Structure formats: structure tokens, C-alpha cells
């Protein structure tokens, strides 16, 4: 039987690793945050009262084996001068429509997965939209992913609350089952506080991550994130992850050893003032994890990204060597 890999995260980082893994002989599952409240996803979650669809849309496309023409339509985003539909992606609207038609977001995703001929499973971490909350290092409380990101404050911890007062937060049972039956859990790459941790702090998910026999791997970010992780080393990212997991759970950390040229990244274009994440192998080992240091760097579009193929190859090696 193919090895079972569960990817946990959100944002734009996860699809980069998923695309090459789809071509490998593995059983792939993505568990995606439902706390996004910005852009098209935020508008739809408010108007239609559904989980934010953007990250799910991107991962469905990353796992798809359908024709590129269909994927281009699914990803098409209306122009800003189209007042009513401005900035909405077609795929987001389809997820919203199918959720309303079926009354179940899992059924909506399953139908789209069939249409797009995906190889793998995509599960929202919860079937209800959640509100991300944070406390800064200075003790300030923040609410909402967009507000947390815009504040550019050094963060200490995050947690989630229900979007409807008094509602009980429940983990998606499919996500819990996938974690408990996995051979490998992969965190990231992606924003630590707003893409990865919002999944882990959902009640039921952390307990499953503590109980699973799976090998757990963290893909350390290449660049810091403005305000949230300024000057963080790879080991400091890991320490925050383990703290939110409740205890050291990560077995291996994939960390980039290649240098990002000082003059390559266009910080104005990406809206970030960031620096390269420095390596601290001794501190990683002190957290109980093995250091896997490689050239994972891909320079493109005036930015520094993970080379998905290189990362996927190392993840598959980790499976074989376990």
C-alpha cells in the first residue's frame, strides 16, 4: 500500500510541495485552515457563512490531473473593475455554491475533487469557519487573521474561536482519522502563526497529532515574516510549533542552506520586510529533531521560495529511511 502523507497548512506554500508529491506513489491528504478572513475567501465566509474556500481551491488545483484549460477557469479571478464580482475566484464561488446546494462542505469538496480528477484528499480542519485569535509578545490581544497579519506585531501564541458565539468548535473527523492513520505528517511550508498553527490549535487535532505514530516533519520557512517572526531562526520556528503542539513532536526539520542574494528579493512587490531565516542546528537538536539541511531554494519572480521538487524528494527519502 502507498505510504500515507498528511500535509498541514494553508496559504501558497503547501501547493508547491503537493504538486510534485501527486506524481509519486503516495496516498496524499491535505488538512487546511479555515480561519482565513481576508480577500475573496473572507467575503464569501461572511456573506454565505461557509468556511473560507481560497486555500482549499488552491490545493484542489495542485492535486488535480484535469486539463489545464479547466484549471485556468477554476483559478480565474474577476477583474477589480467588476464591482459585484471583483477579485472573486471562480473556484471560490463554485465551492460556495456546492456547499449551499449540498448543505455539507465535505460533500462540496468531494464533488469538486471528482470533477477536477484530484489525486489525494482535501479536508478542512473544521467544517465551520473559525476566528483566529492571537496574543502578542507585548500582551496585546488580536482577533481575525487579516487583522493579525496587518498588525505586524511579534506574536507569542494563537488560538481559535467559533465564528458564532456559543458554538462548539469541532475538528473535522476526516482530518482526525487521516492524522491517526498517517505514516508521515508534514507541517508547512507557510506562515507559522496564520497558516500552520491555526490547524494545530483546533480541539481534537492537537490530541490526534500527539497520538499518531506517524513521523512528523517541519519544513522551515526560507524567509521571516514581517512582524510575526522577525529575526526567527529555523529552531525558533520549531520551538513555537512544538509549544503549540503541547510537547516536542517534530522528528525532523527540513531547512534551507542556500543563501538568498541580498539584492534579489523585491520587498515592495511582496509587501514584506523580511530576512533570510538563519540556521541553528544545535537548537533544533535540543528540541529533539533531526536536522535535514539542503539546497531547497528557488529564486523566481523577485522572491525566494521552496523548490517543490527538491523538498518532495527529501520527504520521500525520509519515508524510505524511517
Automatic annotation (TrEMBL):
- Gene3D superfamilies for this protein: CofD-like domains (3.40.50.10680)
The family database entries (InterPro entries) matched by this protein are listed as:
CofD, CofD-like_dom_sf, Gluconeogen_factor
Q: Which domain of life is it from?
A: Bacteria
Localization, UniProt:
Cytoplasm
What Pfam families does the record point to?
A: CofD
Q: Which UniProt keywords apply?
A: Cytoplasm
Similarity remark: Belongs to the gluconeogenesis factor family.
Q: List the HAMAP family hit by this protein, alphabetically.
A: Gluconeogen_factor
Job description of the protein? Required for morphogenesis under gluconeogenic growth conditions.
- For this entry, the protein name equals Putative gluconeogenesis factor
Amino acid at each position: 500500500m502507498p505510504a500515507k502523507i498528511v500535509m498541514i497548512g494553508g496559504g501558497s506554500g503547501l501547493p508547491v510541495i503537493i504538486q510534485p508529491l501527486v506524481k509519486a506513489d503516495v496516498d496524499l491528504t491535505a488538512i487546511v485552515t479555515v480561519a482565513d478572513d481576508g480577500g475573496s475567501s473572507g467575503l464569501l465566509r461572511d456573506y454565505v457563512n461557509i468556511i473560507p474556500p481560497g486555500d482549499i481551491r488552491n490545493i484542489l488545483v495542485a492535486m488535480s490531473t484535469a486539463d489545464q484549460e479547466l484549471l485556468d477557469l477554476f483559478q480565474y479571478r474577476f477583474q477589480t473593475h467588476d464591482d459585484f464580482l471583483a477579485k472573486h475566484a471562480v473556484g471560490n464561488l463554485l465551492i460556495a455554491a456546492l456547499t449551499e446546494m449540498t448543505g455539507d462542505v465535505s460533500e462540496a469538496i468531494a464533488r469538486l475533487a471528482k470533477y477536477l480528477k484530484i489525486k489525494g484528499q482535501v479536508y478542512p480542519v473544521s467544517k465551520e469557519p473559525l476566528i483566529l485569535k492571537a496574543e502578542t509578545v507585548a500582551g496585546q490581544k488580536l482577533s481575525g487573521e487579516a487583522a493579525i497579519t496587518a498588525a505586524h506585531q511579534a506574536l507569542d501564541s494563537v488560538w481559535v474561536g467559533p465564528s458564532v458565539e456559543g458554538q462548539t468548535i469541532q475538528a473535522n473527523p476526516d482530518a482526525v482519522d487521516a492524522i491517526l492513520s498517517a505514516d508521515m505528517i508534514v507541517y508547512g511550508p507557510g506562515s507559522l502563526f496564520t497558516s500552520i498553527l491555526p490547524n494545530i490549535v483546533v480541539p481534537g487535532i492537537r490530541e490526534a497529532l500527539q497520538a499518531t505514530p506517524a513521523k512528523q516533519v517541519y519544513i522551515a520557512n526560507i524567509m521571516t515574516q514581517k512582524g510575526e517572526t522577525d529575526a526567527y531562526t529555523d529552531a525558533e520556528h520549531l520551538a513555537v510549533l512544538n509549544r503549540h503542539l503541547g510537547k516536542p513532536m517534530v522528528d525532523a526539520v527540513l531547512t534551507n542552506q542556500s543563501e538568498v542574494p541580498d539584492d534579489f528579493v523585491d520587498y515592495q512587490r511582496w509587501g514584506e520586510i523580511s530576512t533570510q531565516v538563519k540556521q541553528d542546528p544545535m537548537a533544533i537538536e535540543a528540541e529533539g529533531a533531526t536536522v535535514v539541511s539542503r539546497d531547497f531554494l528557488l529564486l523566481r519572480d523577485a522572491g525566494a521560495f521552496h523548490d517543490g521538487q527538491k523538498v518532495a524528494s527529501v520527504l520521500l527519502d525520509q519515508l524510505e529511511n524511517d
